[in-house]
Design brief:
This protein starts with 5 loop residues before the first helix and ends in a 10-residue tail after the last helix. The protein has one domain. 68% of the residues lie in helices and 0% in strands. It is mainly α and 118 residues long. The protein has four helices and no strands.
Amino acid sequence: MKILSDTTHGILDYVTVALFVLAPSLFGFAGTAAIISYALAGIHLAMTLLTNMPLGVIKIIPMKLHAFVEMLVGPVLVVGALAFPVLVAGGQGFFIAAGILIIAVWLLSHYGPAPEPQ
């Protein structure tokens, strides 16, 4: 069931960026976990700003490519946090939860105009 419009998805993308930026301070992780979190914030911000959606600024990335990247990132976060807990020490639960949330948003998003009601 695709219930998230592109505008709602964009809002959630910006919230995700904020969470990745704030996570090291909020949850007290440092080192590699903090670097990964800040890197994901930067990458997600760039992708969101460049995506052809209502809240994108420079609309050069198609929504379908945005969807594809999110389809990959969610599971990679979960598997990576489980497979390499030492790399995300102190942040394992956060990265697993973030991955699950990204998967959920991916499953619920239209990634393009919603179909016209019939």
